[in-house]
């Protein structure tokens, strides 16, 4: 019984690579015979303008302006537990911002 299992396992492992290799892929032959059918790849050089790094995301000034607008609107929560901010928190934040804005205008 054990001998039959060993023979079957050897037969499967001996034929499996041949079955896998014959799936129709064109592998390069050792003598290079099928390399002549390969198509050349055309590479286009990028212009100097294309090589400039493109900005990703927002600029610092844009983020700062959005933060000021959110502070003015009162939509930034005061605590981590109040997200999204409740209407009461929004009103409180608007009042705090108005007081701070009056103070800032006096000190400039």
UniProtKB/TrEMBL annotation:
- Key words, A-Z: Signal
At the top level, the lineage of the source is Bacteria
Q: Where is the composition biased (Low complexity)?
A: 36-49
Among its keywords, does the record have Signal?
yes
The signal peptide, as residue positions, is 1-21
**What is the protein named?**
DUF4148 domain-containing protein
- Tell me any Pfam family this protein matches: DUF4148
The UniProt annotation puts the region (Disordered) at 22-60
Query: Does the UniProt entry include the keyword Signal?
Result: yes
| Record organism | Paraburkholderia phenazinium
Q: What is the lineage of its organism?
A: Bacteria, Pseudomonadati, Pseudomonadota, Betaproteobacteria, Burkholderiales
């Amino acid at each position: 019984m054990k001998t039959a299992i060993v023979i079957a396992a050897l037969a499967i492992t001996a034929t499996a690579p041949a079955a896998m290799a014959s799936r129709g892929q064109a592998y390069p032959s050792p003598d290079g015979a099928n390399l002549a059918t390969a198509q050349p790849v055309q590479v286009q050089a990028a212009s100097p303008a294309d090589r400039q790094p493109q900005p990703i995301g927002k600029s610092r000034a844009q983020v700062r302006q959005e933060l000021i607008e959110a502070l003015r609107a009162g939509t930034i929560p005061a605590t981590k537990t109040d997200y999204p901010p409740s209407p009461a928190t929004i009103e409180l934040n608007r009042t705090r911002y108005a007081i701070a804005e009056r103070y800032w205008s006096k000190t400039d």
